[in-house]
Amino acid sequence: MKLDRLIAILVLLLRRDRIPARELAELFEVSVRTVLRDVDAIDRAGIPIVTYQGAGGGIGIAEGFRLDRSLLTPDDMAALVASLKGVASSVPDTRHTVLLEKLRNTLSPEQLQTVQAKTNQLVIDLEPWGGAGPVKERLAMLRQAIADRRQVRLAYTDAAGQSSVRLVEPYSLVLKGQRWYLYAWCEARQGFRLFRLGRITELSVTETRFVPREVALDELPWEHEWWKPENAIQLELVFERELSAAVREWFGEDAIREDDQRLMVKAVMPENPWLYGFLLSFGPGLEVVNPPHIRRVLLDLAAGIVRRYSSET
């Protein structure tokens, strides 16, 4: 990943007076031209880069800038290492492991010991309980498809249980709410959609390449698409006190009013199949006060559950 490489190059430049461009290219297994582009990006980010010509020359950071060589403190380095280890645990890519080793090799034994101690204070494990199953394989396939700009064909079942085959242009893998999603342009819907990896039953990468469309991924567009004003409803909910921990985790203190026995919550949420399942997950400890049509939806779903299990007795 480019960001990984930029960080590693910056760390090396902070540790050494100058490094030949060809040495950096060999270290990161890229072309000299790519290294020069990366170095130019670092320079444009506000870290002055100087190129030294002749024998013993190379790329370095301007001497005046070296008043503070500790741009990356042990805490900064520990945060980077913890983040990379977390990503590597879920997204199979040997480059993450290689980058970790490269970062560690820039440290003295004393610094490495300090960073290791701080890294152990924060462990990011992105794998679900019981293992990732087929998700890791799909992540690897989709990540390569994104890098190669190749269309992907997938068999998908949406939240309503409708199955379809989609041809999509993959743009980004998104970890949201402990689940992996693919953000992609869907040919059938003629728009960007978020596909949950757990609902993909078949996946294949095609040989067809696509020209990337304009999309501001740093603005998290899926947040706006999930929260559509026309689907938003005002909920009035009453929870039994034994659900206090879960209610506080989901809604926060500001949304809760309490009496001796119950917790009252007012919240605005998008109405969709996810909402019904979310509300049902609280079981008999939740009563929906308003709106009335949500009460009817939950009643119908609960009646269906009763019929299902009553038929077995």
TrEMBL record:
Keywords: DNA-binding, Transcription, Transcription regulation
MF terms in GO: DNA binding; DNA-binding transcription factor activity
Entries under SUPFAM superfamilies matching the protein: Winged helix' DNA-binding domain
Domain HTH deoR-type: 2-57
The keyword Chaperone is assigned to this record: no
Full protein name: Putative DNA-binding transcriptional regulator YafY
Organism: Hydrogenispora ethanolica
